[in-house]
Each structure stands twice: as structure tokens, then as C-alpha cells.
Amino acid sequence: MFIEPNKQSGSALIIGLLILLIITITGITTIQTTTLQERMTGGLRDRDLAFQAAEAALREAEEGIAPHVTEPSWIQEIGDLPDDLTAQSHVWWTNDSNTREVDFEIVATTPRYVSESEAFLRDTLRIGTGPVTGRYIYRTTSRGTGGTDNAVIILRSRYAKRYN
Length: 164
Fold this sequence. Notes:
- By secondary structure, this protein is an alpha+beta fold.
- It has helices at residues 11-65, 90-95, and strands at 76-77, 100-101, 112-122, 134-145, 152-161.
- The longest helix is centred in the N-terminal third of the chain and has 55 residues, at 11-65.
């Protein structure tokens, strides 16, 4: 019996290279997906920090108004400030003397707020002599940033205070 020498065609090498190529493509896709998810998570964290900073500024404004028995001097009148505070630039918020700073250290830029005297709501519609009782309504707009200045949140709230 005559045995023919083995002829190798290289098919095992080609199949091995194809499997290696598929594994490499799968690995690269997984790395890209993970990187994208990390960026999204970082963006969400930045946004959450910005929201917390803006919320802290609103609370600081309310706590600044609450203990007073008369209207605080730092309250602005409606019309003294730009109409749309939400559209003001970073420069306006950091340099304008009407805004107040809040101590919040874990963000890129210190959160700021501005409070405006919006209205006085009388307790009754009675007209005549005697003391007029009611509540003052204040509108506070705050601006907070996250770990970077790319994430900006602007919040607005209203606060009612009775002085009499």
C-alpha cells in the first residue's frame, strides 16, 4: 500500500485568522460601547451636580429671606434685571453685582442666584383704613454648573413671605 504524503492546504490557518478577526472586531465594539456609556454617565453626573448646585442656591435664597422682619435690601425689583435671566451668559452670572454667591465646592463654578420682588398679595380685598396684611412673593432664579462648566442648570422658584 502506497501512502501519499500529506498535502496541507492551509485551511486551518485561514479559519483561525477569521476567528481571531471576529474576536478582535467584537472586542473593539465592546470597548467603544463601554467608552460611550462612561461618557454618558459622566454627563449625567455633571448634570446632576449642576441641578444640586442650582437647588442649593434656591434654598440659600429662601433661608436668606426667611428670618427677616422686613424685606431684605438685596432683593431686586422686577424690571431692574434683564427680562430673561435664563438667557444670560456665564459672564453676566459671574460678574453682575446683583447676583449672590453660594458656597458649594464640588462644582466648576460657584452657584449664584438673584431674587426679585414680584408681587404683594393682600389677604383681603377690603379697602379702607387700617393695616394692610398679606404676603410678599419673591421670584428667585439660580444658576448651577456641574464638575465642568459645560453642564449648566438654571432653576426658578417663587417664595412667599409674610412680614406682618
